[in-house]
């Protein structure tokens, strides 16, 4: 479902929805956002169930901690605001509001991060967001070189060990050697890209299109939160 949304429109919609959610303080709306976020995660081809569970467990723990904190140590202003809408214990409802509020914000971020492909995101920013080509490819290169940086650091540590030099867990000598090797590698990569015609005028293999449902999601998601916040 959410996989087919244009990444640029998805980014703008979720940012606007998060800002709109920040002006509300109703646990019903928070729960609805959490359910919607997890429906997107379960129906996405990018999100893996194991990763979702690994993030959900600490999120639940933190939300429960916030619930007990707001329940046992509530502020008078929050309790007075909550008591105007309910009949049951205002402190308990205040804790539910705060706990679900945290989970709602976290769920939006998790749903965005796990259902968005980085290549499609950068391509969409370049094509629809008018991001400069050089900036887009610099970000994409940095994301793809994360594993390479770790491997280069391990090789630098191994080189010191071969020469019978002690290498600690975080060694500045190995780090400095890694930075030199990565700088040389970056220069070679830039020269190779320039030699093969990677300029601002080149065409892109990955084309990200805009459909009618992208505009619907961009307008509908934050609007629904605003309307629900007014009606509840």
From TrEMBL:
It is a multi-pass membrane protein. It is found in: Membrane. The chain crosses the membrane at residues 12-40, 52-73, 212-231. Pfam families: CbiQ (PF02361). Keywords: Membrane, Transmembrane, Transmembrane helix. GO terms for cellular component: plasma membrane. It comes from the Bacteria. CDD domains: EcfT. This is Cobalt transport protein. It comes from Dolosigranulum pigrum ATCC 51524.
């Amino acid at each position: 479902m959410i996989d087919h949304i244009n990444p640029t429109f998805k980014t703008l919609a979720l940012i606007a929805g998060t800002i709109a959610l920040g002006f509300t303080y109703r646990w019903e709306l928070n729960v609805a956002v959490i359910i919607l976020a997890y429906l997107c995660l379960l129906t996405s081809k990018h999100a893996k169930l194991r990763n979702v569970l690994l993030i959900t467990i600490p999120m639940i723990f933190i939300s429960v901690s916030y619930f007990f904190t707001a329940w046992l140590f509530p502020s008078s202003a929050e309790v007075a605001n909550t008591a105007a809408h309910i009949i049951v214990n205002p402190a308990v409802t205040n804790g539910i509001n705060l706990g679900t509020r945290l989970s709602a914000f976290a769920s939006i971020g998790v749903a965005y991060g796990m259902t968005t492909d980085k290549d499609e995101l950068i391509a969409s920013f370049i094509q629809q967001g008018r991001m400069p080509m050089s900036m887009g490819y610099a970000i994409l290169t940095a994301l793809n070189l994360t594993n390479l940086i770790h491997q280069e650091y391990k090789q630098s540590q191994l080189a010191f060990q071969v020469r019978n030099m002690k290498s600690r867990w975080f060694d500045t000598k190995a780090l400095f050697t890694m930075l030199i090797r990565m700088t040389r590698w970056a220069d070679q990569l830039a020269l190779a890209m320039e030699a093969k015609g990677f300029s601002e005028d080149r065409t892109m293999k990955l084309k990200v299109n805009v459909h009618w449902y992208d505009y619907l999601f961009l307008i509908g998601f934050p609007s629904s939160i605003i309307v629900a916040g007014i009606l509840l």
